[in-house]
Design goal:
- The complex is a heterodimer of chains A (324) and B (227).
- Chain A is α+β, with helices and mostly antiparallel strands and 324 residues long.
- Chain A folds into 2 domains: 9-164, no CATH class; 187-309, Cyclophilin-like (Cyclophilin, Beta Barrel), CATH 2.40.100.10.
- Chain A is built from 4 helices and 20 strands.
- In chain A, the strands form 4 sheets. Chain A has a 7-stranded mixed β-barrel with strand order 12-19-16-17-14-13-20. Chain A has a 6-stranded antiparallel β-sheet with strand order 7-6-9-4-1-11, with no helix packed on it.
- Chain B has 227 residues and is an alpha+beta fold.
- A 7-stranded mixed β-sheet of chain B has the order 5-13-6-7-10-9-12. A 4-stranded antiparallel β-sheet of chain B has the order 1-2-4-3, with helices on one face.
- In chain B, strand 9 (166-170) and strand 10 form a beta hairpin.
- Chain B is elongated and about 55 Å long.
- Classes of the chains: A alpha+beta (324), B alpha+beta (227).
């Protein structure tokens, strides 16, 4: 039974590194300079909602590296955390339960959830049954901190803030198994970019044969790589033009940058390749210092792989429904 | 009209209108953009989730669960542009203050261009500018073309923070920083006008592609008291 809103909320006792609200993202605004945003790992974001039998695009809390410590006030809720996350559920009576991802937890007034860190990956998600009580901006809950757009005035959460929850949830959901395993595949499939021929023959070869390292410069805007220098033999600048998630740009220093959810809508560096849609979640979750290799696929293969990706999410959704 | 159509990854169509930057090519891009936007709104085509017009390219982003590259490419190639006339535009006047700390880079620009600050501003204010595109960050307009006598390259080392409202020049273009952000353009002044208003979900951008812009000077006092 869902009871009316009694101002149930989480207090942010520790904000964590980069804690925001995200959903499937914000479309139809690139031409205004407003980027897509949304959860960087769409699969884990969707799973956190599916397990709670939420609308698949309900807004969730996204965190990176160290997550938040949240304390619940004024009601009972059900939550689910997805990703590879180390967390504890601290009960009001101070007893501590070690948390498991993809499992439902029921929290009462005074209970806390302590998301200590992500493990072997960067991003995790906390979904709440029924969702958070937030206003959509341009049809999305996603917070874009660079542009200051989205709920919480477009800012990441800071200490002492309250995150309101739509409804109390008093029922018990059927325990649901996804059978999901995070892949940490280090071979990322790409399609050749529109400026592939700006690069020397040697660099074109190197791009598909040698490893690149993920540097510490990773955030929701993009991932900077280091490794063998990619030599541009035409021009290190192009006239600025539209870019998308997954575009790999190479500035004059020869080190590639992969664009992620909060990327600038246009860019002026040559594009050597684009990560295929099916591998976007994967590349975003690779830790700094990981090695990554790029493998070329053509358009037909990329489309086929994306169908598989969608089918996989469908399969988890069906599994969950059978159990419910 | 479109010189080349290519895939940009598996989820976008890259329409290339040429390599030059001029108002004629850009007007074609804007015309295509307007037409496809309209057909998209009218649900005459499905699966298009974003359109990014720039100087001479149009990127069409796809929802791959609904459509694919080939379908949208065919649609674009078969598009009959109904009335290719000059796209409708607004005339907008933008006040700039170039006093004190607002004009960060005059020392540099006078050195490069051999023009005094007064001459640079005179040449800058004379021209009417055309908005080629908006983007990179929300609402940032890219305007041109500035007088050849005052053109200069980007800063070698970009600033970590360019203040909101800063007006910059580089090569043939001038832009306005709609929010505080990193940037490498030569800053000649600051406008108190809000160019991007995130509270207006219908029309957040003051300046849109195709608009004509005239700048005019104001004093520091006028700038500070601007409402």
């Amino acid at each position: 039974m869902i009871i009316g809103n009694k101002n149930i909320y989480f207090e942010v006792c520790r904000p964590g590194t980069n804690t925001t609200i995200q959903d499937s993202g914000r479309n139809h605004l690139y031409h205004l300079g407003i980027t897509v945003s949304g959860a960087v790992d769409q699969k884990n974001f969707k799973l956190s909602n599916l397990i709670l039998n939420n609308n698949i695009n309900e807004g969730v809390i996204e965190f990176a590296f160290q997550g938040p410590l949240l304390k619940l006030y004024n009601g009972k809720v059900a939550v689910c955390i997805s990703g590879e996350i180390i967390f504890d559920v601290i009960r009001n009576n101070s007893s501590i339960e070690k948390g498991n991802c993809y499992q439902i937890y029921y929290l009462n007034h005074g209970d806390q959830i302590d998301i200590k860190s992500t493990k072997n990956s960067l991003y995790g998600y906390l979904a709440i049954k029924g969702g958070f009580n937030l206003k959509k901006i341009w049809n999305s809950y996603s917070i874009n901190t660079k542009a200051g757009i989205g709920p919480n005035n477009g800012k990441k959460f800071s200490i002492g803030e309250k995150i309101f929850i739509k409804n109390e949830f008093n029922e018990v959901l059927r325990e649901r198994q996804t059978g999901f395993k995070n892949s940490r595949e280090k071979v990322i499939r790409v399609m050749k970019g529109t400026n592939f021929d700006f690069f020397s023959e040697k660099s074109k070869k190197i791009f598909f044969t040698e490893s690149f390292k993920i540097t510490n410069l990773v955030d929701r805007m993009g991932i900077r790589l280091s490794g063998p220098e990619l030599e541009n033999i035409v021009n290190t600048n192009i006239r600025s033009e539209g870019i998308i998630k997954g575009t790999i740009q190479v500035p004059a220093d020869g080190n590639p940058i992969i664009m992620l959810a909060d990327h600038g809508t246009i860019g002026g560096y040559p594009k050597i390749a684009t990560v295929i849609s099916a591998d976007l979640d994967n590349i975003a979750q690779l830790m700094p210092n990981s090695e990554v290799n790029f493998k070329e696929v053509n358009l037909e293969e990329a489309e086929e792989l994306y169908k598989k990706y969608l089918n996989e999410i469908d399969k988890y959704a069906k599994n969950l429904n059978e159990f419910n | 009209m479109i010189k080349n159509i290519l895939p940009l990854g598996d989820a976008a169509v890259y329409c290339d209108f040429g390599s030059e930057v001029n108002q004629e090519i850009n007007s074609r891009v804007i015309n295509f953009f307007n037409q496809i936007s309209k057909l998209n709104e009218l649900k005459k085509i499905e699966g298009i989730i974003n359109l990014t017009p720039s100087y001479n390219k149009l990127i069409i982003s796809l929802d791959l669960s609904i459509t694919n590259y080939q379908k949208v490419k065919d649609f674009v190639l078969n598009l009959k542009l109904i009335n290719f006339k000059k796209t409708s535009h607004q005339n907008i006047k933008i006040p700039i203050c170039s006093e004190g700390d607002f004009a960060l880079d005059f020392e540099r620009i006078t050195k490069i261009t051999n023009q005094s600050k007064e001459q640079i501003l005179d040449l800058f204010y004379q021209q009417e500018y055309f908005c080629y595109m908006t983007g990179f960050v929300a609402g940032m307009p890219f305007l041109g073309d500035i007088n050849e006598k005052i053109r200069c390259q980007r800063l070698e080392t970009p600033r970590v923070n360019v203040p909101e409202g800063s007006v910059g020049i580089t090569e043939q273009f001038t832009n306005i920083y709609t929010s505080q952000s990193p940037g490498g353009w030569n800053i000649i002044g600051n406008t108190p006008l809000k160019i991007f208003n995130k509270l207006d979900e219908i029309k957040p951008n003051l300046i849109n592609p195709g608009d004509k812009i005239k700048f005019y000077p104001i004093t520091k006092k006028q700038h500070d008291n601007w409402k």
